[in-house]
Amino acid sequence: DDVSALASGLWQRLNQWFGRFAAPADEVLPVRLGGTRLAATGVAPSRAQGFDQPLVWVTVLLLLWGLVMVYSASIAMPENPRFAKYTHSYFLLRHAMWLLLAFIAALLAYQVPLSTWEKSARPLFLLSLFLLALVLIPHVGKVVYGARRWIALGPLSFQPSELAKFTVLLYAADYMVRKMDVKERFFHAVWPMGAAVAVVGVLLLAEPDMGAFMVIAVIAMGILFLGGVNARMFFLIAAVLLVAFAAIIASSEWRRERIFAYLDPWSEKNALAKGYQLTHALIAVGRGEVFGVGLGGSVEKLNWLPEAHTDFLLAVIGEEFGLIGVVLVICLFLWMVRRMMHIGRQAIALERVFAGLVAQGVAVWMGFQAFINMGVNLGALPTKGLTLPLMSYGGSAILVNLVAIAVVLKIDQENRSLMHGGRV
């Protein structure tokens, strides 16, 4: 009997030892044993199991590459009389300062459990509505290029529409969790969420900022779809949104002109007007060919291509790094979106629906905005004022993007802890 007990204990120890190497922690889905979450490998409970380091390094790579490209794209701007008071490193230093602030904010956000984000979803959404309304007040909202989108905070400016993207995401995920039992009934499940997005849209169009409204609408639609809303309801909502956006474009003369310029940017009428940015972006990408002209060698950034350090940063990347640089940027964003989707699926498998929808919502947000920006820079889509996430100059966007990614990393950390029998 003693020998049998000894052999049984040794066998269990060996199973535990080799089970640690059988499958990575982030690939093991949980099973329920006696109402308690345990990892399928039988590893002893652990409080913390780290976070997704590859996702961190891809994010850091995009941030650092973006910092270099913002400096390269903006270094010649002081030669323009409009920016004569700026130094050659003005945008570099401000971008670096925002990166530091964003890093601190991301560290703080990483400390917040997902349960706290879930409880705060509705108050944060109301806060973003207040800020969107506040920015429209004269002498409070800062006007740049005819759009009132920023609130001055001393030497810095904050853009509430960037915060709204994150808060709408949290609100939509929380809403779907609360309305799971009525998601097959249109008016009970979708109408309140649609009304909330419509209010945000009215405030954004008053700035005006149709680009941010498009991103927020897609985030809400993505979470509705991922949350399991009936397919017929989903396509009905999508059709309503398409009709609404078409009506908005048709009712605005300058938006119609942008569409016509996109269809024929090289015409004599458009090349020096609404099609000017697009034509020079295409010239920049064309000059880069396969291998690019080299870092710092761009000609279009020499005050030919407007907003080269913000909306059209990818065109400068295409000119200086060529097709290889553009493909690398696309691949990095594709990997990031895929990884976030994987983290979201893991959370849902662990019955953490809110956390899963948040992670997948961030993936939809980053992927869609990057897709629109790349399409505009490459001439595949009409010109739209959206920056390239994590890379373009823009402090508010960088800060909110890093906070969102920190929340995804927290979701991954909590997933790993649960799969090892720990708690969150």
What does this structure look like?
The chain has 424 residues and is mostly helical. 65% of the residues lie in helices and 5% in strands. It has 15 helices and 5 strands. The protein has helices at residues 2-22, 53-74, 90-110, 114-134, 160-178, 186-189, 191-205, 210-226, 231-250, 253-263, 268-271, 276-288, 313-349, 353-377, 395-419; strands spanning 31-33, 36-38, 141-144, 147-153, 156-158. Helix 12 (276-288) packs across helix 13 (313-349) and helix 13 packs parallel to helix 15 (395-419). The chain is globular, with a radius of gyration of 24 Å.
- Number of H/I helices: 15
Decide which structural class fits the backbone: mainly alpha
DSSP E strands, number: 5
Low-confidence stretches: 17-48
Q: Can you summarize the main beta sheet?
A: 3 strands, antiparallel
Mean pLDDT value: 83
**H and E string:** HEEHHHEEEHHHHHHHHHHH
Write down the Rg. 24 Å
* Percentage of residues in helical conformation: 55-70%
Q: Give the overall shape.
A: globular
Question: What kind of oligomer do you see?
Answer: single chain
Strand order of the largest sheet: 3-4-5
Report how far the terminal alpha carbons are from each other: 41 Å
- Which strand-content bin applies to the residues? under 5%
